[in-house]
Amino acid sequence: MPVSTRTTRTREPRVRRTQEQRSAGTRALLLDATVASLVEVGYAATTTTEVCARAGLSRGAQLHHFPTRADLVVHAVGHLAKRRADEVRRELRDSDDAPDRLARALDAVWASFSGPLFYAALELWVASRSDASLRANLVRFERGVGRAMAELWRELAGHDASRAEHFEDLLELTFHVMRGMALQRILRDDDTERRRLFELWKRLVSECLASPVQKERKR
Predict the structure, then answer these.
(1) Alpha carbon 148 to chain centroid distance?
(2) CA 103: distance to chain centroid?
């Protein structure tokens, strides 16, 4: 009788997810689907029906987690903003003492204005002009994001730079500059010129935030 060479595999016990894990998974599906819809088809076409279809979930599941469309889209952008902030931290984790840390931090933040986070948020900014419910949700969200971005900026820039006299002003100006340049990309496909201007801005910021010791070394 031939001897079977097959080995018997033991099945690993299936780990059942907790209710909290299932709930978090459902929320993530809804938020990811919302972001994708905002970027691909815009705010007007990002209906709750569209989001549920993309996520493969029922309308009831969406209503349980996000009672209104405004709740859903604003939380989706916040979800993406947190993910991007975590990515930036990971990208710069090994450059704490690098001499070009500030320049690398600016590059990382600029990348956030070149991807889905910016375009998803832009859809909400424009729509909120004529949608009072969305605007109220968005104002609260922007305040929280503003504080989180300021904290991230300090972390990325490093201890010495964050103590500079005009640090907060440069933070605000940097976001204005980046936002304006990102908007320009919609109408003008000229990344080479934008990059040249952005490199100039990086040098200006670095010079303004340089410590007295660093400034003395450059002389």
Answers:
(1) 11
(2) 19
Element (H, E) at 65: helix 59-65
Residue 30: closest CA among 3, 82, 67, 2: 67
Looking at residue 29, its amino acid is L
Residue closest to 183 by CA, chosen among 101, 106, 125, 103:
125
The pTM for the full model equals 0.75
Residue with tokens 């305040």: 143
Give the SS3 label for residue 173: helix
Tokens 């709930």 appear where?
Answer: 23
- Tens of pLDDT, residue by residue over 115-144, are 888 899 899 999 999 998 889 888 888 777
Give the three-class secondary structure for 45. coil
Alpha carbon 182 to its chain's center: 14
Write the CA distances from 194 to 60, 62, 178, 179, 184, integer angstroms: 45, 40, 10, 12, 9
Distance between CA atoms of residues 201 and 37, nearest Å: 33
Q: Quick one: how far is CA 150 from the chain centroid?
A: 14
Residues 6+ apart with CB under 8 A from 48: 59, 62, 69, 72
